[in-house]
Structure to design on (745 residues):
């Protein structure tokens, strides 16, 4: 079979699309520049020919049917906060935005589930659930991403160490397949042994298999209290060394993050707040662990904080600061949540990786990654989820030569991905593959796994129109009759 | 030096307050916290204590419900040496003048125990009602000098030099002690308690002063009555300006402000 080629969007097709979705179609100058990129422009930008702002499952199905029939590529899009190029219309065609499908449809409080449309923002769902005494546990750093986008990348976030990732909270979904057929996967129940887990294949598929138009998500009863500890350490090694000891002491933190001093200082400048100590008792602080515990009894929680403090002090912490008022919690976590924004603000050219390694291997991995910057124009900045070994590493350059930077970055990424795998890790913990990491995925999973993934894609998407150039299939390279 | 910091417990001011069915602000479910300006006052007092390093002591005082003991424990964890609560749950309604009467009674009671206060700190206002009266009325009742909107201070001998915030910047005011200070946001943030101080504060007692021992109940009758409370009108949606170029967008924005007589 030859390499696939897509058809152009003609005036007639635009009219058909407009008719199919009640005129919710943008073309030409009506399309905002934001639709040409996500948060990582470095992986390429591309304008779509048409943006469809669908409002119902039926509209999505009608659009997919037309595009499938005419072999027009379709790229699903949420709030475009992706970090791997996923929502960029690499081959033009249609962007199908779910941003107007943003309603929280219903709660079933007795069964602890909520049903929403995919364009609901994570922040809105979290706040709304909290107002009902419930919690949606997944807590990725980007609060203004859509929940549909979170499901599509199986986003993790800060609370994954205790509560797991987005996958653990998806009970059911409605999906429009690339052919325009509508299917329902999963149910409002906690167990499933009913055939292949198609719902679970959809989760983390980055909009390459179908378009999610409705989600039923598991909630938990919100813990009554949370407390955090800011734990300063002289070295990163000591900071990470404390993490397994917390688990060994039967402590079960809700979140467990690490940060290094230079990024914290930049972020505090950005926010105009000074929260994290730089020296204590005459000791220079170079790394911090930020730990949160939750529970239903403040006294019990304070006992937990005391026990955890003993563990970290024994492990080399200089002291422990306690954050238990709303303001203290907000400020301590605002710094953590703004680390990426601060790095972006101070950098002209940026590339990133979000490898996940066994917790005990974090220092070895970071030492290796940082050693690679010697003799190069880039610098390495990092932070991450100490509790699950998911690291966010940024290559930062303020040079103007993008081509040279991309070459350096490619060399860097190849080396660190090999190292991550060698240490028993994976190449992406939560940001996904998109277009930016496709080549590395191939190297990592090997040809058999790539064949399986493409085979799955072809079953869902016979004409290979949905989000081409992402994850496992690029029409310019991969479409053969293997 | 003997320092008093007066604090008020208020609903967490980051939470949007809506009106309840009874026509009053629905604050029951909102976490109670120490008024932000009072946390600045305590931090300023604690820094002064650390600078003087002469055995100065800080007493925190709160008029509030029993739950305010938790707020006082938080004060003990970040610099206060002693904490006192005046339980006012029996008082239906009073105003800043009534509160100043209670505070005066409490100050006199504490002075009998601990000696004269050299400095009395309050926040410049509470984030719930934001009137900014209490510190000034208290100074009046005590017959003490008052310096409002303090951003920073220095004590030399028996005089205090205070940076008083103004619209344009600040002016420096000097006064002989004792002085009542109302504190605005300084250039620093309140500290986080260390685990050691937090645990120590947990074990320290919160002493109670009985309201009836401090004030005659008729002094609490509110002279200022709240006539009604209502939510502010919602802000109208903004206007998106998207001209061909940034320059044209700026010109259009300025023209719109001229038309609206803002400029």
């Amino acid at each position: 079979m030859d390499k696939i080629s897509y058809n152009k969007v003609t005036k007639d097709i635009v009219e058909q699309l407009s008719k199919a979705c009640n005129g919710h179609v943008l073309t030409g100058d009506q399309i905002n520049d934001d639709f040409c990129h996500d948060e990582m422009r470095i992986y390429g930008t591309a304008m779509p020919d048409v943006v469809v702002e669908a409002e119902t499952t039926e509209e999505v199905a009608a659009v997919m049917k037309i595009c499938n029939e005419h072999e027009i590529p379709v790229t699903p899009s949420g709030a475009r906060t992706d970090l791997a190029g996923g929502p960029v219309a690499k081959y033009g065609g249609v962007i199908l935005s779910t941003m107007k499908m943003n309603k929280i449809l219903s709660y079933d409080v007795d069964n602890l589930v909520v049903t929403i449309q995919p364009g609901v923002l994570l922040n809105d769902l979290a706040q709304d659930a909290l107002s009902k005494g419930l919690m949606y546990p997944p807590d990725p750093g980007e609060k203004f991403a859509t929940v549909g986008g979170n499901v599509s990348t199986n986003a993790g976030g800060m609370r994954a160490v205790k509560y797991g990732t987005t996958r653990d909270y998806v009970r059911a979904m409605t999906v429009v397949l690339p052919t325009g057929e509508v299917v329902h996967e999963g149910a409002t129940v906690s167990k499933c042994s009913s055939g292949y887990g198609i719902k679970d294949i959809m989760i983390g598929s980055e909009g390459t298999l179908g378009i999610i138009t409705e989600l039923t998500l598991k909630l938990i009863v919100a813990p009554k209290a949370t407390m955090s500890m800011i734990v300063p350490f002289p070295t990163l090694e000591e900071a990470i060394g404390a993490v397994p000891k917390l688990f060994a002491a039967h402590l079960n933190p809700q979140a467990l993050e690490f940060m290094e001093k230079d990024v914290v200082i930049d972020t505090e400048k950005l926010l105009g707040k000074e929260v994290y100590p730089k020296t204590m008792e005459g000791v220079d602080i170079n790394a911090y662990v930020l730990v949160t515990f939750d529970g239903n009894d403040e006294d019990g929680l304070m006992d937990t904080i005391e026990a955890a403090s003993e563990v970290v002090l024994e492990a080399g912490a200089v002291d422990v600061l306690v954050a238990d008022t709303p303001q203290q919690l907000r400020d301590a976590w605002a710094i953590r949540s703004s680390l990426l924004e601060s790095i972006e603000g101070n950098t002209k050219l940026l590339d990133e990786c979000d490898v996940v390694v066994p917790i005990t291997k974090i220092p070895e991995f970071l030492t290796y990654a940082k050693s690679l910057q010697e003799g190069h124009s880039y610098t390495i900045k990092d932070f991450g989820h100490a509790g699950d070994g998911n690291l966010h590493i940024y290559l930062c350059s303020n040079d103007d030569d993008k081509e040279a930077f991309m070459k350096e970055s490619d060399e860097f990424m190849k080396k660190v991905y090999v190292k991550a795998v060698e240490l028993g890790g994976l190449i992406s913990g939560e940001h996904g593959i998109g277009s930016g990491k496709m080549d590395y995925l191939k190297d990592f999973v090997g040809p058999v796994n790539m064949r399986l993934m493409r085979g799955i894609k072809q079953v869902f998407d016979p004409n290979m129109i949905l989000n081409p150039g992402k994850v496992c299939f690029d029409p310019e390279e991969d479409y053969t009759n293997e | 030096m003997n320092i008093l910091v007066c604090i008020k417990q208020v609903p967490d001011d980051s939470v949007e307050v809506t009106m309840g069915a009874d026509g009053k602000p629905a604050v029951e479910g909102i976490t109670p916290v120490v008024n932000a300006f009072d946390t600045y006052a305590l931090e300023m007092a604690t820094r002064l204590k650390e600078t003087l390093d002469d055995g100065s002591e800080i007493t925190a005082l709160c008029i509030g419900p029993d739950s305010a003991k938790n707020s006082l424990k938080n004060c003990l964890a970040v610099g206060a040496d002693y904490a006192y609560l005046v339980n006012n749950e029996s008082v239906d309604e009073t105003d800043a003048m009534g509160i100043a009467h209670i505070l005066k009674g409490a100050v006199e009671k504490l002075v009998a125990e601990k000696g004269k206060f050299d400095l009395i700190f309050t926040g410049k206002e509470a984030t719930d009602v934001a009137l900014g009266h209490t510190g000034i009325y208290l100074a009046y009742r005590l017959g003490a000098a008052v310096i409002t909107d303090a951003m920073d201070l220095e004590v030399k001998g028996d005089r205090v030099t205070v940076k008083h915030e103004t619209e344009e910047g600040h002016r420096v005011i000097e006064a002989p002690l004792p002085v009542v200070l109302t504190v605005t946001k300084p250039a620093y943030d309140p500290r986080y308690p260390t685990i050691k101080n937090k645990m120590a504060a947990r074990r320290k007692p919160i002493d109670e002063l009985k309201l009836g021992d401090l004030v005659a109940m008729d002094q609490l009758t509110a002279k200022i009555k709240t006539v009604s409370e209502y939510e502010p009108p919602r802000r109208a949606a903004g206007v998106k300006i998207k001209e061909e170029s940034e320059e044209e967008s700026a010109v259009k924005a300025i023209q719109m402000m001229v038309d609206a007589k803002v400029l």
Q: What stands out?
A: The mean pLDDT of chain B is 94. Chain B has two domains: 2-220, 233-263.
